[in-house]
Amino acid sequence: MPLLSEMEAHTPDSFMQWWAGAWEQGEHVLILGQTGSGKTTLERFLVQPRKWVIVPDAKAGDDNLDKWGYQRVDKWPLPYDMRENLRNKEPVHVIVGKVAKTKAHKEQNKEILARCMSDLWMQGKWTVVCDELQLLADRRFAGGQVGEDIEELLISARFRKISVVSTFQRPKIALNTPSASAGITQATYVFASMTRDTAVHDRLAEVVGRPKPEMRGLISGLRKYQWAAFSLDPAEPVRMVLPPKIEKMVPPAEAQQTRSSQFFWGELPPEEL
């Protein structure tokens, strides 16, 4: 009979103390949660230790992302000052995407994100937050090219030191979406929120190598906005954490860009590999 997993309850500070040292550059994270479960808050919490974070805004104006305190840019390549920061190995935290007011703007946003995702593999060292991976990976989004680029990052970009944080609501979408499937199979860490959907419990148990009955009891018993963090190593404990509100995580506003440039920077990674 399999042994039950060890459980640990963490404060945000104690969890981050472990997480900042455990999550290595090049390792991927999978977040599974229903609408309203706090996925965006968890994303912002998890990427705090990372120096270079890029968030493609597939919704073309997601106001949840605007609460992060990151600068939003509506063009690609990045503005001149951000490229200078990358060259100088200084932090860059950015949301990429146009705030759409018309359907034409939405199409322009898809083109911007397609160029962005295509270049990230070459640059290396980024942490890429794919909020609602299902939308980005849809074949109707930029002809499916963005989904193919994300799949490539997930499968073959570890040697480029790129980490991908993938979020979606149910693992079932991976059946017909290759990049979502890669998001599951290539993840080193999996985070799950409370749900009573037994299909989610069972698939999650398969992904993280835990008994299905244990998973059903564990996930259905979580509190609202609380997350269970799983390592793929079954000997590792399951860590429970309730992230702080985004307002408590946002640092003082970063300086706004003062200059833009059409010169392309993209052949050098933010830091030599």
Structure write-up:
There is one protein chain. This protein is α/β, with parallel strands linked by helices. The chain has a single domain (7-249), classed as Rossmann fold. It is 37% helix and 18% strand. α5 (103-123) packs parallel to α7, α7 (145-156) packs parallel to α8 and α9 packs across α10 (212-220).
Map the helices and strands.
Blueprint: E1 7-10, H1 12-22, E2 28-32, H2 39-46, E3 52-56, H3 63-66, E4 71-73, H4 80-87, E5 92-96, H5 103-123, E6 127-130, H6 133-137, H7 145-156, E7 163-168, H8 178-185, E8 187-193, H9 198-208, H10 212-220, E9 227-231, E10 238-241, H11 246-249
Parallel strand pairs: 1-10, 2-7, 2-8, 3-5, 3-6, 4-5, 6-7
Antiparallel strand pairs: 8-9, 9-10
Helix pairs in contact: 5-7, 7-8, 9-10
Question: Could you give a short description of this structure?
Answer:
By secondary structure, the chain is of the alpha/beta class. It has 11 helices and 10 strands.
CATH 4th-level superfamily: P-loop containing nucleotide triphosphate hydrolases
Question: How would you name the oligomeric state of the polypeptide chains in this document?
Answer: single chain
The order of strands across the largest sheet is 1-10-9-8-2-7-6-3-5-4
Instruction: Quickly give the CATH architecture.
Output: 3-Layer(aba) Sandwich
Q: Helical segment tally?
A: 11
Shape: globular
SS strand fraction: 15-25%
Could you estimate the helical fraction of the residues in percent? Answer: 25-40%
| CATH level 3 topology | Rossmann fold
> Which CATH C-level class is it?
Alpha Beta
Largest sheet, if any?
10 strands, mixed
For the termini, the CA-CA separation is 45 Å
Alpha carbon gyration radius: 18 Å
